[in-house]
Amino acid sequence: MANLTIVSVDDEYPALQLIQKYCEQIEGADLLKVFQNPEDALNYLKQNKVDLVILDINMPYMNGIELLRQLPYKPLCIFLTLETQYAVKAFELDVVHYLVKPVDFETFRKAINKAKDFLQFKNSVEQQKKEDFIMFKSNYVMNKVLLDDVRWIQGFGEYIILMTHLKKYMILDRMSNFEEKFQNLGFIRIHKSYIVLSSHISSYDTAHVYLKDGEKLPLGRTYKNSLKAYLN
């Protein structure tokens, strides 16, 4: 497993020194940067994605909760602070741990290891999503196609065409059967003749659905409300 990349933000320099000392003693804890100024930290984190941020809460100019909410992505977070009244708010933000100063090494180590476990679980879930696939018969052969490769499904009476980035498959099946069989994977009907993956939709208007690969497909009037409800 790769090292846990960390940035720490605290307006008290002795606290940052202690975090540096603790991280040096924990295998796989890679402390990249420390910041006393939360605005400098925010600018750095917007440009550099890290696994974990260790944040003080009560800081000048911007508190730790505000900093976390302004990030364009959601890293793991440990709050390390003198304040106790923000614990409920912190856990609403799905923080890994809430540590109250002063914190001893063993407590800090357990919090870091908990962050490692969270990251490992998150990565395994994301990898599983990448490997999602469907199986179907086409031309008397069972085919396995990754979801990421599916562009759209088009119906032609008793047959459907499954279009991928590299190949077109003709399947003896009805649209309604395909929709029912695979809807739990994110397929959604947008027209009487078209089904797409919701994760591949870039945008839509009153008459069309636009996919992330640039394709434009028709949006049926009877499917607009269900599409809007699904995506919102």
Automatic annotation (TrEMBL):
Report what the protein is called: Two component transcriptional regulator, LytTR family
Among Gene3D superfamilies, the record links this protein to: 3.40.50.2300, LytTr DNA-binding domain
Q: List, in alphabetical order, the Gene Ontology terms for molecular function in this entry.
A: DNA binding; phosphorelay response regulator activity
Q: Name one Pfam family in it.
A: Response_reg
Residues where 4-aspartylphosphate is found: 56
| Boundaries of every HTH LytTR-type domain copy | 144-232
Provide the Response regulatory domain boundaries.
5-116
| Superkingdom | Bacteria
Q: Does the keyword Phosphoprotein apply?
A: yes
Q: Which InterPro entries match?
A: CheY-like_superfamily, LytR-like, LytTR_DNA-bd_dom, Sig_transdc_resp-reg_receiver
| Cross-referenced PANTHER family | STAGE 0 SPORULATION PROTEIN A HOMOLOG (PTHR37299:SF1), TRANSCRIPTIONAL REGULATOR-RELATED (PTHR37299)
Keywords from the UniProt entry? Phosphoprotein
Q: Which organism is it from?
A: Chryseobacterium oranimense
